[in-house]
């Protein structure tokens, strides 16, 4: 029995057409992943790869989009899984700059969504990003003229306890940190 190509086209076409007025195409999950990645401040391909480490596929992103939730709500929902995937990738590949940037992006995102009131006795002109400043240097693994290169990262906040906790975690990872009170210029942690 010979099957004609015309007979195969109709079922094949129906597989790629959405039953919901073509609102959700084949690439919907990938596009939604891109929206989430832009919101977090990381590369969308990297976000997808990290999420694959924990079994989260494009189909899951598509399901989140179909659930009609915003990219911010989806990011808050997947953030613990993303952190778990980062830990998995870090154990496999070591401290790569892309992984460290993603960790920094998570910290920055959490500081951004957390509303910390400014103290009244400190003007915003004195400390535009917050009273306390945490800076740390991370080796990139690259060499320049025989010296190991480092990347410097930093963040500002009014929440000293949170910055101290972040600094302790960084120190435990072998990173040199500097936590400074910008008003009094006092070094809190070195």
UniProtKB/TrEMBL annotation:
It comes from the Bacteria. This is Uncharacterized protein.
């Amino acid at each position: 029995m010979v099957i004609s190509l015309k007979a195969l086209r109709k079922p094949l076409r129906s597989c790629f057409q959405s039953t919901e007025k073509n609102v959700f195409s084949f690439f919907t999950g990938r596009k939604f992943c891109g929206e989430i990645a832009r919101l977090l401040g990381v590369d969308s391909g990297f976000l997808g790869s990290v999420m694959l480490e924990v079994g989260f596929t494009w189909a899951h992103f598509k399901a989140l989009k179909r659930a009609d939730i915003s990219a911010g709500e989806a990011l808050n929902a997947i953030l613990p899984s993303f952190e778990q995937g980062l830990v998995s990738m870090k154990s496999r590949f070591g401290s790569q700059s892309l992984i460290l940037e993603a960790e920094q992006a998570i910290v920055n995102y959490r500081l951004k969504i957390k509303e910390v009131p400014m103290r009244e006795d400190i003007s915003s002109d004195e400390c535009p990003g917050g009273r306390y400043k945490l800076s740390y240097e991370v080796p990139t693994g690259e060499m320049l003229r025989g010296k190991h290169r480092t990347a410097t990262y930093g963040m500002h906040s009014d929440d000293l306890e949170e910055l101290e906790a972040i600094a302790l975690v960084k120190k435990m990872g072998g990173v040199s940190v500097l936590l400074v009170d910008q008003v009094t210029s006092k070094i809190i942690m070195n």
